Amino acid sequence: MSRHARFLRLRPVLALLLALAAVVLSLTWIGVSTAGASDEAKPPAKPTGLQIDATPGSLDVSLDWDDVDGANNYWVRWRVNGPGNKLNDGLLPLPTASDATITVADYGQWRIRVQACNNSGCGEPLAGNVDVQPAPEATTEPPPEPTPETTPEPTAAPTPPSDPTPEPTPAPTPEPTTTPKPETTPTKTTQTTPGQTTEKE
């Protein structure tokens, strides 16, 4: 049998093999495409590990969170904390970033929300509160009161002991001098007889 005849006989078999190979490749490509599509068929998971830091006196707020698998970007939004306040448009950080710095409008309580997003949308948000406070007022201590100078009291010169005034010595009362009475000479009475002279001693 010639070579050409053999080729003609094998030609249907080769065509069948090529057809089977094409089917296998198609199925493989479809499977890969389906797997890739299923990965992005749902939004990413909820972020975790949100940390919020605010410095008193600054309206800038620093945010940090854990990476989320399948996220292409993150949507950060914030509002004044309290019922009835709407979220702003926020910002979308870079896909590789799991942190951001936002600037709020004023001091006070703020509600911040972070969502991981991909082509299918954004996942469940992670929210937290922060209290943005003004810088503390500088406390000025009053100047110390001057200490009044104490004027030393004049030291009194020691008073010399005064001599006690001597009590007047009473003058001795002179004893009354008794004037001696003259002794009286007894008079002798002599009876005289008439014609006699009376003699006195």
Describe the structure.
The protein is of the alpha+beta class and 201 residues long. The protein is 18% helix and 21% strand. The protein is built from 1 helix and 7 strands, in the order H-E-E-E-E-E-E-E. The strands form 2 sheets. Strands 3, 5, 6 and 7 form a 4-stranded antiparallel beta sheet that branches. A 3-stranded antiparallel beta sheet has the order 1-2-4, with no helix packed on it. The protein is rod-shaped, with a radius of gyration of 70 Å. Mean pLDDT is 76; it is low at 189-193 and 196-201.
Poorly predicted runs:
189-193, 196-201
Helical segment count: 1
Structural class: alpha+beta
Radius of gyration: 70 Å
SSE succession: HEEEEEEE
Mean pLDDT equals 76
Q: Sheet with the most strands?
A: 4 strands, antiparallel
Tally of strands: 7
Work out the strand percent: 15-25%
**What is the 3D form?**
rod-shaped
Which bin fits the share of residues in helices? Answer: 10-25%
Termini separation: 242 Å
